[in-house]
Write a structure and sequence with these properties.
Strand content: under 5%
Largest sheet: 2 strands, antiparallel
Helix content: 55-70%
Structural class: mainly alpha
Shape: elongated
Bound molecules: arginine
Distance between the termini: 48 Å
Strand order of the largest sheet: 1-2
Radius of gyration: 31 Å
Number of helices: 20
Order of helices and strands: HHHHHHHEEHEHEHHEHHEHHHHHHH
């Protein structure tokens, strides 16, 4: 692309809005004003919007059908030039809207000048950007579905594999691998529903709101809305050109999803360490060290953990851009696009990398099981047994169990390794039946409450999600 101002292009820019101007813009003015370096990403949407607008102008009799035919053909030529990479973008023409229109004029001549009837760049950019964000929401939905499918596969394979469950990152109670995977399915499932909500809410067409007040031409906004796949025209023209909620909602949805990704990424970093060995990440999603030959680093997980920084940063940035803006359009709003593009690109990359990592990773069943029993993870089961079988109040059972944990700690063993005599020091009524609940498999199997970690509950969750 050519970002350098050339006199011919400058003359063309002046033809767009320069009627009252004697001078072209200062180079610095052009540098701060131009958005073409990034909004060229909206080219396909811009041309789709123009095509819908032109057809409508023809159908309503605002333009002659011969003009519409010329515009239609010309726009297709412009699109093919952009797709082929031969289109010369010009910073002097500011943005994608004027770049496309100026080229259209070169190709079809006079009819190009009629395309902007009953429309403004304000409704044009809102329409283009909405179409882009809508595509992105659809792509995010698909990426989330792929990640959820990968997690369901992991959950199904290890629905009854025991592992330690943590609170405060301290061993708490045994859980199942499948249950842990399904926790993320719930999170990414909520992200999916937020994506769908955002899409449903944003799907109204700004096109035809014109600069801010609508137009005196007898346009048909229903027709353009329908042609562009919108549910309806946006109902208030002032709002239509100045609304960027759809971008903010995309960014907040993306931010929450990135938070979820970062939490899982952090667990993978911990779990793949030599101290944990809960999972082995594939070579395809790891890197080596240039100095330490033994290293296999979880770089993808670390980068996914970090992505939330720029994605949430984009949300904060656009919130601050929009804050306090009076109605309707202000040029401030041109600052919306780079934030959304960057956040969208990085979210897609993070989702794809996470899906790849999850599909490829191996859970180390033996390491998970060994860790599951460590750290007195079945102490709650012992306390519950004292309540259930001996009828003790829970507080007393808690106290007795605590003293037995202290005893085991002193002996350097785990709870199931204590003898019955040891146990009876805690309470004389304890029988050998107690050892049944001290095993981690029995512990998880007993947690059959709805949403609990018992394999049968986990399998029910998996079945529900697979529907
Ligand atoms: N490049 C502008 C943007 O991204 C397009 C709209 C310009 N509208 C205007 N009245 N100057 O927001």
């Amino acid at each position: 692309m050519t970002d350098t101002p050339d006199p011919a292009a400058k003359a063309a820019a002046n033809q767009m809005w320069g009627g009252r101007f004697a001078d072209g813009p200062d180079a610095i003015m052009e540098a701060i004003n131009a958005s073409i370096s990034f909004d060229k990403r909206l080219a396909a949407q811009d041309i789709a919007g123009s095509r819908a607008h032109a057809e409508m102008l023809g159908a309503t009799g605002i333009l002659e059908s011969s003009d519409v035919a010329a515009i239609r053909e010309g726009l297709l030529t412009v699109l093919s030039e952009i797709e082929a990479g031969t289109f010369q973008f010009s910073a002097a023409l500011e943005d994608i809207h004027m770049n496309v229109e100026a080229r259209l004029k070169e190709i079809v001549g006079e009819p190009a000048g009629r395309l902007h009837t009953g429309r403004s760049r304000n409704d044009q950019v809102a329409t283009d950007f909405k179409l882009w964000v809508r595509d992105q929401l659809d792509a995010t939905e698909q990426a989330l579905q792929a990640l959820i499918a990968a997690l369901l596969d992991q959950a199904e394979a290890g629905a009854d594999w025991v592992m330690p469950g943590f609170t405060h990152l301290q061993t708490a109670q045994p859980v199942t691998w499948g249950h842990h995977m399904m926790a993320y399915v719930e999170m990414f499932g909520r992200d999916l529903s937020r994506v769908r909500d955002a899409r449903a809410r944003m799907n109204t067409s700004p096109l035809g709101a014109a600069a801010l007040a609508g137009t005196s031409f007898p346009i048909d906004r229903e027709m353009t809305a329908k042609a562009l796949g919108f549910d309806a025209p946006a109902a208030n023209s002032l709002d239509a050109v100045s609304d960027r909620d759809f971008a903010l909602e995309f960014l907040s949805t993306a931010s929450i999803c990135a938070v979820h990704l970062s939490r899982f990424a952090e667990e993978l970093v911990i779990w793949s360490s030599a101290q944990f060995r809960f999972v082995t990440l594939s070579d395809r999603f790891s890197t080596g060290s240039s100095i330490m030959p033994q290293k296999k680093n979880p770089d993808a997980a670390e980068l996914i953990r970090a992505k939330v920084g720029r994605i949430f940063g984009a949300q904060t940035a656009l919130m601050m851009v929009m804050k306090g803006l009076p109605l309707a359009y202000s040029k401030d709003m041109q600052e919306d696009k780079e934030q959304v593009f960057d956040a969208a690109d990085n979210l897609m990359l993070a989702l794809a990398a996470m899906t790849g990592m999850v599909s490829d990773m191996t859970a180390n069943r033996a390491a998970l099981a060994a860790a599951a029993g460590a750290g007195f993870s079945t102490a709650t089961d012992l306390a519950d047994w004292l309540v259930r079988v001996l009828g003790l109040p829970f507080r007393e059972a808690h106290h007795i169990t605590g003293s037995l944990v202290a005893l085991a700690e002193e002996r350097g063993c785990d709870l199931p390794d204590l003898t019955l005599e040891d146990m009876q020091v805690g309470h004389a009524g304890i029988t050998s039946d107690v050892f049944d609940v001290l095993g981690v498999d029995n512990s998880v199997a007993s947690r059959t409450s709805y949403g609990g970690t018992a394999p049968e509950q986990v399998r029910a969750q998996i079945a529900r999600w697979k529907e």
